[in-house]
User: Fold these one by one.
Assistant:
Number 1:
Amino acid sequence: MAIAVTNPATGEVVETFDPHDEVEVERRIAAAQSAFVALRNTTFAQRAAWMRRAAELLEADAEELARTITVEMGRPLAQSRAEVLKCARGCRFYADNAEDFLASETLADPSSVKASAAGTRYAPLGVVLAVMPWNYPLWQVMRFASPALMAGNTGLLKHASNVPRSALYLDTLFERAGFPVGAFHSLLIPASGVERVMRDPRVVAATLTGSEPAGRSLASIAGSEVKHVVLELGGSDPFLVMPTADLDAAASVAVTARNQNNGQSCIAAKRFIVHTDVYDEFVSRFVEKTAALRVGDPLDEGTDVGPVATESGRDELAELVDDAIERGAEVLTGGSVPDRAGWFYPPTILACITRDMRLFQEEAFGPVATVYRVESREEAAEIANATTFGLSSSLWSTDDDEIDWFIDRLDAGAVFVNGMTVSHPELPFGGIKNSGVGRELAAAGIREFMNLKTVWRA
């Protein structure tokens, strides 16, 4: 893919960028290594001051950055603005908490290990490569960069090729905030250039958010080099509605949970599994509210849903829907590519989904929802878990025993009860099965790229 900004609302190329050549890539890796030597010897207080300055810069640049995001990947402007402000919040969270998360611990009774003192201490690993997607072009990066830099690591970013403006903003943000030169840099390289960077001995670990094939490829390289990786590879999250649910609240949240970010979110609810006792009422409300969404220019403040970010993504989404329709799915709203410029796809709801349809297993990365009628909580859990993914889930019920039952049985990295899945700096984020390995955010996220040293003294 060319390194270019192509406006998905029009299909027009706005700007192109020359990729970094081998000399520039080498210079940036060397700069990251030099910066690590300097950064690891700074104090948490110093890093926190720089990180808070990065938050201030993000807030000052919020309007310009929001427009950059919207033009690059098509998200409605208000949602892009919220992403920028969330990044600033993440910076402050780690500025405030990194030192506590990485505090040394001592063994209460060192005599049990025949020592006068014993415990653990965290030390940063070094240069970490981040391979990141376009769907949240700032937040996906910042939820790695903020904890990594606060821990004393340095970062190299290989961003998605359709969001180079976002990549170049991040390329200078931390240096502007005061971090050592080279502490965080972007690499404008194609996907084919990732292996060379990953195999460089100065790069000690990697994190990737993206497709399952991309994750498998990076993990394979990392395995051959014996380097640590964190992978977040998407999901097909269930949204379960049980008889005691507040149906109006559930239906309203369902619309947002499916269509936020034009439906292009790994943690978006995608499969709506509804108990037969409330199925007709919930689906009626869900369809009515979905059909009322305004699709249009994402720079228009009144737009609810913009275009899919890439033409290939829109075409793949349409193929999934067409396959389901050909195999008997019922279209409740949407379901066809509109005749207009840009890569738009209407908010769509499909019913009568069967296991032979691609949509039953594959992730629909766009505003397409599937609904399932179930007779019991056992059937609901079985369908929820009948996927290779296991990122998050949303459960709607007011029965405490039922809630506990589902929390224990849903195969997912998170269960949100009576609310939609949202990533918070304060909570660990990640999945199981083919949704990935490792965790981001909270204390777990900052500890992923640390050497946990055992310290024993006679």
Number 2:
Amino acid sequence: MRDLSDRTTLVVGASRGLGRGIARAFAQAGAPVVAVARTGTALAELAAAGARIQTAVADATDAATAGSLLDRHEPSIVVLVAGAGPLMRPLQHQTWETFSVNWHTDVRIAFHWLREALLRPLRPGATVVVVSSGAALAGSPLSGGYAGAKATQHLITGYARDEADRAGLGITFTAVLPRLTPLTGLGRPAVRAYAARGGQSEDDYLRQLGEPLTPEIAGSALVDLARADPATVAPGYLLTGAGLRDLPR
């Protein structure tokens, strides 16, 4: 269990949902936290709740943002949670613009930040966690290109891991795939849509998912992951209300 007091943790997408829970958990564990998001008001509320949290209002999809913030803060841990909420409609009711929104946000964010982490590079011993989605494994027929975008995030995290190993950089890259949860702004409309599609009540649909994943559980799980021996960190994990579970290789 490694001490986090000198491991600056940069959380991209920290203003809401799982990202907010992750930022708070790292601060509570003693890490200096840089919370990044586009919404200054939400970030200010987060910072007011923890003395170890400083904020950066920025657009994570901008190609210059990753390099600028990595240079400024020199983090030991980077967690990428930011992304767009998909339009919940079946394929035939999507347009190309709505279908592709997560490719232009979620995948773009992962690409820019993974690229900069390798190019800079981050210091040996650094950890980069890309928070993808369980939809990358199971699909998501009501959310356009969301599942494919999340699968691509998972894939390119693996590519970055391989490149870091080939270059001997000593940087750990891993992907975390959270299960659908009703406790975030992203998950609530998805639960409603899939329950209606299946002719179920939301309660019945949720019972199928098991214990709900909360922002607090997500935060605790990622703190444990950051504290682990890098040699034991797997390329990818499924994250549920019961915590992290290794993905099959």
Number 3:
Amino acid sequence: MSTSRKQVILGAYLGGVNHHTAWWHPRAGSQIDFATFEHTARTAERGRFDFFFLAEGLILRERAGQIFDQDIIGRPDTLTVLASIAAVTEHLGLAGTINTTFNEPYELARQFASLDHLSGGRAAWNVVTSFDAFTGQNFRRGGYLDPADRYARAEETLNAVHALWDSWNDDDLVADQSSGRFLARADAGKFAFHGTQFDIAGRFTVPRSPQGRPVILQAGVSPQGRAFAAANADAIFSPYGKLPEAAEFYRDVKTRAVAAGRSADEIKILPSASFVLGDTEAEAVEKYHAIRNEQVTGQTALILLEQIWNRDLSGYDPDGPVPTIDPDPDAAPIIQGRAFVHQDRFATARRLREVAETKKLSLREVVIDQFERGPLVGTPAQVARHIDEFVNDDGSDGFILGSHLVPWGLDEFVDRVVPLLQDRGVLRADYTGTTLRDNLGLPPVRSGTSDRRHAGTAR
């Protein structure tokens, strides 16, 4: 294959509290034991993946005031897990989801700069927001933010964190020849940030980390979310796994990045995807349908639709038709703690009814058909070809991959698909960079004495 083809970025995510994980499988492992995280990370590194990604839920999800009885409960603290994984890997990036709504810039800057030092330059922060009082009840400040303010706080939080990271320059630690120690310059670590959310000043305790700044990840579908990500993120999670929607999203975000004064290459677009492999295409499709039928039970299908309808649908037959009643967006939320990704409840309900009518599907079959993260289904050769062509047709810059089987599922992809991607010349045979930024093809972030930034304001 031509070496001019785009290189595929690969991230690995660990399936957790959701209906995509086959927690009942005889070979399924714990969601809490360190061995689960270690095996997934080591497998990803063996496959020359760019990074390991952890999502985070800040509260146990509920339906009508009761904990979901089909959810997996339990996930250790993200940064603790990533720091532990840093000790058993050498090259793999370590990406963690941490909320801007309930955390302070100083804490965030210190935690991620520390992880970047401990890992030798492999830290990444997935910047997310939370605006609901249900999640906020676990925190001192509660649900104090109006939904419209969440990106304002997120952007100011990120700007403040950047000011803290940039308070140290690369040359602020100077070798003292007489003692053999490194001494800090007099103004090292000084910062001041004045905004609408934060008014802070002091000295930052962590010297500039190997990447200068840890990699910033973000997910945003709305125009506001896309604008925030295009201006601030190094990579953005795309919700689109199929063309042409994926290519349209790709072009839109890259265009927004250029409009924000950046190069289009400075932001990477990465959809998440599951995979099912077979020795033949027919075998893979059969396995995929069997897995999905087990994952999406009748109860699961009803709960997924309840989040859209915001109504109690327990009286509906999962094997019957999609509800004809309209959603009730003004009622108290029946589902709590699950991110709402549908921009328009009424339009989504209409679309599901139209799909059901066109394809002659029941309620549960519609959910199986529509609530999937762009699965990669086929033989290893077919999946490798699809990934290569999708990336080189500018549907994305890579994929974040996860399996229904935790933690063993990723092994099959690494053993059977990775060698084919390497043969096609679109995946590294070995790591060449020393940091996550290097491996992602992102420009380095360095700061010299002449461009020190002691202060920042919300843009």
